[in-house]
Structures are given as structure tokens and as C-alpha cells.
Amino acid sequence: MYKIVTRRELVPHINLFEFSAKEIAAKTKPGQFVILRIDEDGERIPLTVASVDVGKGTITVVCHEVGKSTKQLGNLKQGDCILDLLGPLGKPAEIGKLGTVLCVGGGVMVAPLHFQVRAFHEAGNKVIGIIGAKSESQLIFEDEMREVCDDLYVATDDGTRGYKGLDFLKELLKERKIDRVVVMGPVVTMKTVSELTRPHGIPTIVNLIPIMVDGMGMCGACRVTVGGKTMFACVDGPDFDGHQVDFEELMARMKMFTPQEKLAFVFQEEGGRRL
Ligand SMILES: Cc1cc2nc3c(=O)[nH]c(=O)nc-3n(C[C@H](O)[C@H](O)[C@H](O)COP(=O)(O)OP(=O)(O)OC[C@H]3O[C@@H](n4cnc5c(N)ncnc54)[C@H](O)[C@@H]3O)c2cc1C
Ligand code: FES
After folding, report:
1. What domains, with CATH codes, occur in the chain?
2. From atom 3 of ligand 2, which residue's Cα is the shortest distance away?
3. What phi, psi does 29 have (nearest 5°)?
């Protein structure tokens, strides 16, 4: 059993959880994820680690309530325990001294992006950050990102805070010399940023989070096509070259179970019946 030592609502429907998990904390590097199960009937929920405290023996994840299982997790409180926490999974992000790194984060994935940004900063890079959300009320980790970024830009889809959308990035890419771009967030954000950096030839790493089941390369659920080759995001990634990813296929595969997911959520809301 893994205990929740901290649970904090960051904004409505996005919660931070710090779990007591000494062995996982000791091994986890930025970019890696865990898969958790709340109880014996629980679905497996992959979440990217947002920070570790090796001394305390804890890992922190930030979870957006988007469906049945993430809502169940959101209902847990500090002091509660979950059944399983498997990890660290996936390859760590490649952190090195590269020069200037532009890190773009959207929605809940700004939290795990911050783990990488801190590592790039500590490795001696100049880090430009861009954080985004649908609206100002959904922005997370702004103060934490400001601490470790040399420059930080804020953007929202509806323009309620900072730039409206990512169009301003076109100018930024012309004005600044950027050696590496890292993107974590919705697929559409990763696709847009990769298209914008392609003409500049800037290496662009995207963090793919397709539907996963085992997280260990055996079930095939997380299949993605990169550079015309089939890869499994859980073991070959989750980081890939954004200029090589087949984003259309990824988007289609992520919508495969939408009717079942909607149904499960409705049953959950109406009294916790299991499907
Ligand atoms: C490697 C990895 C790391 C992840 N890291 C985080 C994280 O740090 N924080 C976080 O909040 N979420 C993260 N996710 C997404 C999270 O695992 C899913 O949102 C969750 O499993 C959905 O479960 P559910 O039962 O609540 O919703 P479901 O009923 O399964 O789905 C509800 C909605 O969410 C969408 N959805 C389902 N799975 C994903 C997915 N993998 N990515 C995006 N949308 C999805 C569905 O299309 C549907 O519209 C990660 C996923 C992967 C594979
Ligand atoms: S989740 Fe099963 S192969 Fe990746």
C-alpha cells in the first residue's frame, strides 16, 4: 500500500498527490512515469512524475480529473492509501548541456515538465519556458516554473492570460537561437510546436502519452508510429522526435475507447457502479 502524504487541489479538477514510495523515489528521473491502481477493481492510471524527494522517500504526481479513474483518485484524501504504484517506467528524458532549451508545457503536463526544466537549468542550460492552459483559471505551476526558467511566457487558448494561443512562438523562433525544444501537453500542442520548429531545423522532443495498459512493452496498447516505424511509447519513449511522429494516427488511437470511457464515467457518477 502506498500512502498519500500530501493532497492539494491546484485548480478545480487538477490535484497534486505526494505518495510515500521510497524505492521509486530513489530511482526516478525526469521524464519517467508511474502506473497506479487505487484498489483491486481499479484501472491502471499512468502519471508522469512531477518531482521526487529522495530524503523523504516520496514522489509527487499531478492528475487532471478527465474520466472515471482520475475522478476516483481525485476523491482520495491525505492519509488514504492506494494499492499499487509501479515504476519508474519509460526512459528518462535526455538532459545535457545543450545551450538554450525551450520547454513548452500545456495543461496538467506543465507539472512534470517542471521536473525536466529544473534538470536542464541545473545542467547549466539557459531555459525559456512557455506554459499554457485553456483559460487563466486552469494555469498551474507558474511560480515553480518562474523559479527555474530564465524567461517564462504564458499563453491561454481563450486569451484570458498572456498570449492567445501559440502564434507568438513563430516570432520567438525567429528571434532567439534555440538548440532544443521539449514539449509536454495535449497532442495538438505537440503537433503544432513540431510543425513550427521543423522549418528552423530545431530538434524537438515530444512526450507521448497514448493509452497504456501494462506499461512494459507487452500489450501493444501504446503503439505509435515514429519515422515510419512502430514503437511502444511505454518502453521506447515516452520521448520521441516530434518531426517524425505520426500525430494523426496518435489522435485517432487516443479516441478509440471514447464511448466506453463516457459510459464508465456516467455509471461512476451515478453511484459508483462498476463496468
Ligand atoms: C505515460 C503517461 C503519462 C501520463 N501522465 C499524466 C499526468 O502526469 N497527469 C495527468 O493528469 N494525466 C496523465 N496521463 C493521462 C492519464 O493517464 C489519463 O488521463 C487517465 O488514465 C484517464 O483515465 P480515466 O479513467 O480518468 O479517463 P478515461 O475514461 O480513460 O478517459 C477520459 C478522457 O481522457 C482521455 N484520455 C484517456 N487516456 C488519455 C491519455 N493517456 N492522455 C490523454 N488523454 C487521455 C480520453 O480520450 C477521454 O476523453 C498520462 C498518460 C500516460 C500514458
Ligand atoms: S502499454 Fe503495453 S506495450 Fe506499452
Report:
1. 2-89 (2.40.30.10), 100-254 (3.40.50.80)
2. 217
3. -115, 160
Going by CA atoms, what residue is nearest to atom 17 of ligand 1? 46
State pLDDT tens for residues 222-258.
999 999 999 999 999 999 999 999 999 999 988 766 6
Q: Which residues line ligand 1 (CB under 6 A)?
A: 33, 43, 45-48, 61-64, 66-70, 108, 112, 209, 211-212, 238, 254-255, 258, 261, 264-265
Atom in ligand 1 nearest the alpha carbon of residue 255: 47
Q: What are the pLDDT digits (tens) for 103-131?
A: 999 999 999 999 999 999 999 999 999 99
pTM of the model: 0.93
The 10s digit of each residue's pLDDT in 55-92 is 999 999 999 999 999 999 999 999 999 999 999 999 99
Q: Is the CB of 212 under 6 A from ligand 2?
A: yes
pLDDT of residue 266: 65
| Per-residue pLDDT at 272 exceeds 60 | no
